[in-house]
């Protein structure tokens, strides 16, 4: 981990020097790196978990971490994030990196348009938006209107747009959302004629596409969690 963080720091410094307003860094320039101590929290080992593969016993003491819904796993992630953010906050050139990246990425970005039904759609990012916005046009010369703005899915902006697919006639749009970067997603449906959201919602979706067929669509999901059933 220490090697990775040091390599990352060198890469960031190189980026800043190479992109800095036409100023070429001297070839003999050296850089002093601040040594930031990292103390990782202890992780519980469950020595009772083993598998027997054709007579060979394999220990798996950290299998409890695979349950991402458990209180213990969530608490472990919180402690790990404290360590990570504590390290990152002490990097002296971090603000300069942030300002430079904002300067580089602050321009309008368009994705290629596509047609669904009798209308045209495209994604656009004004510059520094966290997520691109989906627009619709009746024709290529008409005024574009917003269909979906993922930046407004949640008040803190951490709910993102995942997969999306239109019905064959373009009437319905099914799309998935992810909260806080989770692999777990929910699929909802929007009526493109009325602009209203349907009551349908598919939860506990993971690593699934959306494929319309007739009046519905194919998807894959996992069983609901014990907490949802209780």
Describe what this molecule looks like in 3D:
The chain is an alpha+beta fold. It has 2 domains: 2-41 and 71-105, no CATH class; 109-229, Methylamine Dehydrogenase, Chain H (7 Propeller). Helix content is 23%, strand content 29%. It has 4 helices and 13 strands. It has helices at residues 2-19, 71-88, 94-105, 226-229, and strands at residues 50-53, 56-59, 109-110, 114-116, 119-125, 133-137, 145-148, 159-166, 172-179, 185-191, 197-205, 211-213, 216-218. The strands form 4 sheets. Strands 3, 4, 5, 6 and 7 form a 5-stranded antiparallel β-sheet that branches. The protein has a 4-stranded antiparallel β-sheet with strand order 8-9-10-11, with no helix packed on it. A two-stranded antiparallel ribbon has the order 1-2. A hairpin with a 5-residue loop joins strand 10 (185-191) and strand 11 (197-205). It is flat.
User: How many structural domains are formed by the residues?
Assistant: 2
Shape-level CATH architecture of the largest domain: 7 Propeller
- CATH class designation of the largest domain: Mainly Beta
* Poorly predicted segments: 1-6
Helix content bin: 10-25%
SSE run? HEEHHEEEEEEEEEEEH
Total strand segments: 13
The number of helical runs is: 4
CATH topology name of the largest domain: Methylamine Dehydrogenase, Chain H
Quickly give the structural class.
alpha+beta
* The CATH homologous superfamily of the largest domain: Prolyl oligopeptidase, N-terminal domain
Residue-averaged pLDDT, rounded?
A: 87
Sheet with most strands: 5 strands, antiparallel
Instruction: Estimate what percentage of residues fall within beta strands.
Output: 25-35%
N- to C-terminal distance: 40 Å
* Radius of gyration computed on alpha carbons: 24 Å
So what's the overall shape?
Answer: flat
